[in-house]
Amino acid sequence: MTISEKVAYLKGLAEGLNIDTEKSKEGKLISVMIGILEEIGMSIEDLEENAEALGEEIDAISDDLSDVEKAVFDDEDEDDECCCDDDDFFEVDCPNCGETLMIDESVLEEGVIQCPGCKQKFALDLSDDCCCGDEDDSCGCGCEEHDHED
Questions:
Q1: What residue numbers bound the domain in which 54 lies?
Q2: pTM, whole model, 2 decimals?
């Protein structure tokens, strides 16, 4: 039974008792209390309906967000791309902790980089021809844009 149904049942019981709500102080009190309970019941039903509607809207937004995340982040998960495809960034491994860092051309020109992982500074060796830092193409990128000298 819902709250509104329970209040209606209580109202029916009060009417069945033939309580004089005009002259009796107790009857007036019971009548006012039942009126307040009816309003509370209707307010609760409205809140439940609004909560259900909001839940449905949140589900729809969550589905839309999931689609957006899939479109945005699934492209980053492709591991078959060559590390040389992006001309603006280069991969460098930190000699201290081994973390792979992505650096841009301005950091490359400075020649020194501070690893965000271990906070150690190290000099960049620019003698390699491959964008990956491997002279003998041991990275396996197969990039044809760089000449790997034997």
A1: 3-76
A2: 0.42
